UniProtKB/TrEMBL annotation:
Family: Belongs to the glycosyl hydrolase 25 family.
Chain coiled-coil ranges: none
GO molecular function term, any single one: lysozyme activity
Cited PANTHER family: LYSOZYME PROTEIN, LYSOZYME-RELATED
Swiss-Prot/TrEMBL keywords: Hydrolase, Signal
Single GO biological process annotation from the record: peptidoglycan catabolic process
Stated name of the protein: Lysozyme
Amino acid sequence: MKMTSLLIVALQIYTSLAVLGIDLSAKHDDFQCFKKNGYQFAITRAYRSYGAVDPDGYQNLEKAKAAGLIGDVYFFPCKGKKTAKSQVQEFVQLFGNQQTQVYGTVWVDVESNPSTDCGWTNDYGSNCNFLQELVNELKGNSQSVGIYASQYMWTSIFGSASACSHFSSLPLWYPHYDQTPTFDDFPKYKFGGWTTPSIKQYSGTTSVCGVGVDLNYYK
């Protein structure tokens, strides 16, 4: 009985250390509502898939900070009509770097890009090199960088789940819509050399506080 009680307490402590948050692309005003609903961080879009910085994402970040939420941003790059360097320069011009703007990590969104002249190609090596250029440019502008990707997308873009594995020292944010805020599923879906993720996007588009968001778990 005593051992069972200790286990329950341990599980309660473990659960209490978990942090839930949201990510969104739509412009929104009421970030206090997220706070009241128990969400502690917000990841806003900083760069659009068609090759343009997102001013709405900047305003969302400011509102998230004002509401007392932890703020990160995600960067949906365009491979094709713009260089990695020019995209990062556009981002830094609006969002600043971590010395001038209080946000945490810039998450590079590695997934299929439907925008014209911006998609990943069938040249897996070129895709990996472009991602490296983008990461280098962000780091060169004093950014903390993470990767957003799934096993499926990584395999599609780089040729295999084990390919392009030299990013595994960066934090990983991965999607798996099992509605379960834990990392218990990750061993089955791991890729890219990562052994431990940082954030899980556990639920896709969900209406919270009157806007469509994705739900995330951080541990």
